[in-house]
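With this grant's support, the team has encoded backbone shapes as discrete tokens. A representative record is reproduced below.
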Amino acid sequence: MGPEEDLPTLICRKDHLNILRYVRAHQLRDPNLVVTSGKILLESKSLGDAERLASLEQICIAACDIGDLDLAESCLDSIVNPSESNNKSLVVTKESARYRKLLGLCLEAAGNYESAAKVYDILLQDNPSNAYAAKRKYCILAAQPGKETDAMKALDEYLSKHPGDLAAWNQMAEVCMSVSDFKGAAYCYEELVLGCPLDSNIHTKLGEAYCTAGGVENAKLARKHLAQAVQLDQNNLRAWYGLVAAAEGYLEEVEKLSKNKREAEDEGVEVAKELIKFGGEKLAGVYQGSKLAAVVRSLLTETSHSL
């Protein structure tokens, strides 16, 4: 497979070996394609030991993904019971971590969560820092209704040991948002910002979390991150709407303060009013000439009248 070749070309050429290689190399999730190409490839019986093992693992995972448990079990059996192998170092035993990872996935796909959890427990006993097994244990709990609290605890424990996993922080943020823990979600998005400081979407989500949490200080933080989001991506309409909403929310929070505290926020109030006007002009310009222009203009007019 050359570096210039793309997936459509490989599919047209029916190059099943390189189709699987391409999917692995680019970390694509297309289980139907993997299963279709994988079946044909295995029937050819022309693979070397290393390529055959990699293909069997890939097909096994894809089969679990589409619920073809018979195929997944067949691949799993072929991995530990190869018909012939010239390289003994590539023979996988049932006690190996490689086999147990696939076994756990097959058990999960079959809905046998208890047995799958036991498999991952064994992996963690052998290697307490096994991030894969720890994440799968969280997934098992998250997949079962009524175990949301246990799932959050498992994910929290995982993050305490693997604080650099940005995907896990993003998952924890979504979990916190689902249970209305907006301050917890903001904390998680702050961790994501440290890892991806130039990602406009993360700043947007962080601003929304602060805005929803309420309070003057949170409204200021919301305004800050949403302003950063539009600076990083001028076409991020969600951030523009959020910026206007955060500025409005700030003004509402200031109104709840005592007279002395309101006076201390005079400068912030002026900044918020200017942001609402600036954001409103931007949004009005975006929708100019479209069917939604009148609706957007009406909403922005109501906001400007309240200033």
